[in-house]
Amino acid sequence: xxxxxxxxxxxxxxxxxxxxxxxxxxxxxxxxxxxxxxxxxxxxxxxxxxxxxxxxxxxxxxxxxxxxxxxxxxxxxxxxxxxxxxxxxxxxxxxxxxxxxxxxxxxxxxxxxxxxxxxxxxxxxxxxxxxxxxxxxxxxxxxxxxxxxxxxxxxxxxxxxxxxxxxxxxxxxxxxxxxxxxxxxxxxxxxxxxxxxxxxxxxxxxxxxxxxxxxxxxxxxxxxxxxxxxxxxxxxxxxxxxxxxxxxxxxxxxxxxxxxxxxxxxxxxxxxxxxxxxxxxxxxxxxxxxxxxxxxxxx
Length: 299
Description:
This protein has helices at residues 6-18, 21-28, 32-46, 62-86, 101-117, 130-138, 181-187, 195-206, 230-234, 244-247, 281-295, and strands at 51-54, 57-60, 92-99, 120-127, 144-147, 156-171, 189-191, 219-222, 240-243, 256-258, 266-274. By secondary structure, it is an alpha/beta fold. The chain has 3 domains: 6-85, Orthogonal Bundle (Arc Repressor Mutant, subunit A), CATH 1.10.10; 87-159 and 271-295, Periplasmic binding protein-like II (D-Maltodextrin-Binding Protein, domain 2, 3-Layer(aba) Sandwich); 165-266, 3-Layer(aba) Sandwich (D-Maltodextrin-Binding Protein, domain 2), CATH 3.40.190. Strand 1 and strand 2 form a beta hairpin. The longest helix has 25 residues, at 62-86. The radius of gyration is 25 Å and the shape is elongated.
């Protein structure tokens, strides 16, 4: 197992940032030969060269890229540890959250209110696919993540938040009011990155004899901005499928119609955190707020 010297690693990270040995030496109050010596010792520990030199400039080798990524992760964790040890207040510090884009439309306005009440509270939010949310919580990039299943991971605490309905959303003007697949195809699907997976689940349950797969649905328009998906639906252009969290924040609810299907489909919501992280006051504050927001989705 390679144990990298933190001093040499710090020098290397600054060198990567500045791109220049002299600037690195000035920033770290070292001599230029001292910077070079730290680099050589780090390369000796790794067993591979970390840079390609091109005159006075350089580029990173694959090993250099890997060491830089490791060093950046180490600095991030060190910063978080220092913040935790120095103070533990619910109204200050940084909290990183991630969820699906649909849940983000419902959750982020509530996070804005939290930041307005606590000016020293910094919240970073990322809308991401479920696998990225899970990986980010495991490796410490996110303090809290919301996904649709219990990953049963040994490094995580997982709390069931409840469930939300998967909604077939139609224009209120009646153009797509028919509930058969033929009626829906005549209207046209407003597609987004998750819609085909949603359609496979929802339509298989409600149209078992007629549905032949989401790849056969007639697409009228495609969009990947979660905040814009319902605009063409409200305008009567087509229908779409979204979790309820993606529908509730839309400001013109009177222009939408949610179909009352025979087989209602629900998606689970789970809150993930690294083991022990909920003991940090600011993270617990946001976790409690997320539970309250998820409660609004109860059918």
